[in-house]
Amino acid sequence: MAVLKIRTYPDKFLKQPTKPLDNIDGQTQKMIDDMAETMYQAPGVGLAAIQAGFDQSVIVYDIAPRDEKRVLNVLINPRIIAHEGSVLSENEGCLSVPDFRADVKRYAQVLVEGVDRDGNPLRIEADGFLSVVLQHEIDHLNGTLFIDRVSALKRQLYNRHLKKKMKKS
Ligand code: NI
Description:
The protein is of the alpha+beta class. The protein has one domain: Peptide deformylase (Peptide Deformylase). 28% of the residues lie in helices and 28% in strands. A hairpin with a 5-residue loop joins strand 4 and strand 5 (121-127). The longest helix is centred in the C-terminal third of the chain and has 17 residues, at 152-168. The chain is globular. It starts with 25 loop residues before the first helix and ends with a helix. The relative contact order is 0.17. Bound molecules: nickel (II) ion (NI). Nickel (II) ion binds next to helix 2.
């Protein structure tokens, strides 16, 4: 397993919609293992393949508390097929948008379908934190970052912060 480089905003690669995966092979399994290792090492609660440089429709996530046993979840070709209500996801963050946190409006509940790493169909009814994580990661697969969902002013401030940071390094 290997820790992969996480692409960060404003990398254009992150803006492209990913391709559905129709053949789960050994290479897919290696990608998933490397994505998981990258997520745990970061550490983060979720990672989409596009963040690690693969334009494929795959996400991994683990929302188990840090001190508890790891529960890796893999979702291939996930789609939100139904949603209900809305909620303010407070202080959301993303490994591809370092040093930035913001409140984001999200659906309160989602129904997600996809397949697991063995190709078995999955159907997940989620609310609370899991619902937010799934929406955030599925957004990545559609080329959307959570910073695209905040106000233009907040985005401008972050862009300024990035410029300063680049000058320093
Ligand atoms: Ni993210």
